[in-house]
Amino acid sequence: MFIYSVTIAIDKNLEKEWLEWMIQKHIPDVMNTGCFLKYNIYQVYSALSEDLSTYNVQYLFEKVEDLEKYQKEFASQLQKEHKDKFEGKFVATRTVLKKIQ
Where are the alpha helices (DSSP H) in the chain? Predict the structure, then answer.
């Protein structure tokens, strides 16, 4: 099993709008690609700051080919939609994790 982990620090002034958009639009769009089995979304408490709120979205997938398909066929458009909507108001990092036990 693998996890595609996306950590996003968003301007606190946009946090509520961003979170609603993520839950109602972006995450369903990602899940509708068929590349992931499920997702979880977390608020990152260790990253508390006055200006930014940090969240982590984890998408579970079985095979490396699933992530490769997502990155090749869907990621650019979905990331562009996020960037266009919240440009200059967020920072995102992406990590792939492999389950060991």
Answer: 15-21, 27-31, 64-73, 75-86
Supply φ then ψ for residue 66, to 5 degrees. Answer: -65, -45
Name the residue ranges covered by the structural domains of the chain.
2-98
Whose tokens are 């997938």? That residue is 61
Q: Is 35 exposed, middle or buried (0-12, 13-18, 19+ CB in 10 A)?
A: buried
Global pTM?
0.90
Q: What would the pLDDT profile of 22-55 be if each residue is shown by its tens digit?
A: 999 999 999 999 999 999 999 998 756 778 899 9
Q: Say if domain 2-98 classifies as CATH 3.30.420.40.
A: no
Tell whether the model's pLDDT for residue 63 goes beyond 80: yes
